[in-house]
Design goal:
Layout: E1 6-7, E2 24-27, H1 52-62, E3 65-71, H2 74-77, H3 82-98, E4 105-109, H4 132-141, E5 149-152, H5 155-164, E6 167-171, H6 176-183, E7 193-195, H7 198-210
Parallel strand pairs: 2-3, 2-5, 3-4, 5-6, 6-7
Antiparallel strand pairs: 1-4
Helix pairs in contact: 1-7
C-alpha cells in the first residue's frame, strides 16, 4: 500500500519523553479551524476562523494535544503541489504562533482513491474516514484515542472518531451547517455534540472533562 501520510515536522512541538496516553483533540483544517474557501492553493488564501486561535489556546492551557488531521486530495488532483501544501500549513502554524497558540502536529492525507496519478492516486489507509492519520498521530505523540475527540464539519470526521473509539463534535462552520440541517438523516455516525464553531466545541470538551 502506498504510504504518503506526512507529519508537518515544523508544526510539531517536541514530544515530552515519558508522557504517554494523553487525550487529544483532532481538528479538521478547512471549514473547522480555517475558513472554507475550496482548495487552498496559496498560503495567502489560508485564514483562521475568528475564534480558532482562542480555541487552540484553551487546549494548550488545559494540557490537551491539539492535532490537525486533514484530507488534502488537491495534491492527488494536481491542484497544488506538496511544496504548496507545506507552505500553506506553515502559514497556519505562523498565524497560530502569532496568536499565542500551537499545534502538536499536522497530519495530512494527500491521496485520492480514483483520481490523479500514483503515488497520490492510492487506496490508502489515511483518507478520512479511514483511521490512519489518527492512529499514526497516537503512536508518534503518545495519545489515547479512546479519551480523545474529533472535531470537524463533515460526516467523515464523525465516522473516523467512531472507528478509533473517540467522541466526535460537528461544527456548524464550513460545510457543517448545511450537512446538519439537510443531510443529518444520512449520517453514518451521529455526533456526540453539535457546536457553533471550534471554540464552542472545545468548551464542550473541556466542560465534559470536568464533570
Amino acid at each position: 500500500m502506498q504510504r504518503a501520510i506526512f507529519l508537518e515536522k515544523s508544526a510539531a512541538r517536541a514530544y515530552t519523553a515519558g508522557v504517554v496516553s494523553r487525550p487529544a483533540i483532532f481538528i479538521d483544517r478547512d471549514g473547522t479551524l480555517t475558513e472554507e474557501v475550496g482548495y487552498v492553493n496559496h498560503p495567502q488564501r489560508l485564514r483562521l476562523l475568528p475564534r480558532s486561535a482562542e480555541a487552540i489556546r484553551r487546549l494548550n492551557r488545559a494540557g490537551m494535544a491539539a492535532v490537525v488531521a486533514t484530507n488534502q486530495a488537491g495534491v492527488a488532483r494536481g491542484y497544488f503541489s506538496e511544496e504548496v501544501l507545506h507552505a500553506v500549513n506553515a502559514a497556519l502554524v505562523a498565524q497560530l504562533t502569532e496568536a499565542g497558540a500551537f499545534l502538536e502536529g499536522i497530519y495530512v492525507c494527500p491521496h485520492h482513491p480514483v483520481v490523479g496519478e500514483p503515488p497520490f492516486r492510492a487506496d490508502c489507509d489515511c483518507r478520512k474516514p479511514k483511521p490512519g492519520l489518527l492512529e499514526r498521530a497516537a503512536a508518534e505523540l503518545g495519545l489515547d484515542l479512546t479519551a480523545s475527540t474529533v472535531i470537524g464539519d463533515k460526516p467523515s470526521d464523525l465516522e473516523v472518531g467512531r472507528r478509533v473509539g473517540a467522541r466526535s463534535v460537528l461544527v456548524l462552520t464550513g460545510y457543517g451547517l448545511g450537512e446538519w440541517e439537510y443531510r443529518r438523516g444520512s449520517f453514518p455516525v451521529q455526533p456526540d455534540h453539535v457546536a457553533g464553531d471550534l471554540l464552542d466545541a472545545v468548551e464542550w470538551v473541556l466542560g465534559e472533562r470536568r464533570t
